[in-house]
Amino acid sequence: IARLSAGVSGADGVTYTLNVENMGLPGKGLTAEDLTVNVVVPAGAKVVKTGGANYQGERQDSELKGNVAVWRLNKLAPKDRQTYTLTLSRAGTAGDNVRGAVRWTKPTVKTGPVDAVNIAPAPIAPATQ
Fold first, then answer.
1. Cis, peptide link before residue 121, omega less than 30° from 0
2. Which of 24, 50, 75, 119 is buried most deeply by CB count within 10 Å?
3. What is the pTM of this model?
């Protein structure tokens, strides 16, 4: 499961926090291997800084139809959790909100080259007055 927080404004920009967790049961669940975490960078926004291990940079993603920030993870065992942060120069809007996908190659759950779970769009923070 992957949960993306609402963006939090700060001196450097707007920071989003992404928690990725394997919800399997220890000793019974499967360990996901060769994971790629992709978070869409809205058009016109720049990546200011990132947090979390193994950040790979930005690239185009045809499935997500945009530029994405990418992290790699060798494996995620049942109940393991990873936290990533992404600070952007501007917040996503309702039309181009920050979202993404976590993809893995092993174990396979369905036919195709990879399995994936979508990262729902980040909640839009209320406008400050």
1. no
2. 119
3. 0.86
Find how far residue 48's CA is from the centre of its chain: 16
Nearest by Cα to 117 from 23, 49, 28: 23
Please identify which residue in the block is written with the tokens 């920071």: 15
How far is residue 22's CA from residue 62's CA, in Å, rounded to a whole number?
A: 25
Closest CA to 86 of 45, 51, 118: 51
Q: Average pLDDT in the 18-39 region? A: 92
Query: Is pLDDT at 87 greater than 70 in this prediction?
Result: yes
Between CA 115 and CA 129 the distance in angstroms is 42
12 near 87, Cβ under 8 Å? Answer: yes
DSSP E strands, the chain: 2-4, 8-9, 14-21, 32-40, 47-51, 55-61, 66-76, 81-88, 100-106, 115-119
Indicate left, alpha or beta for 63 from its phi (over 0: left) and psi (-120 to 50: alpha): alpha
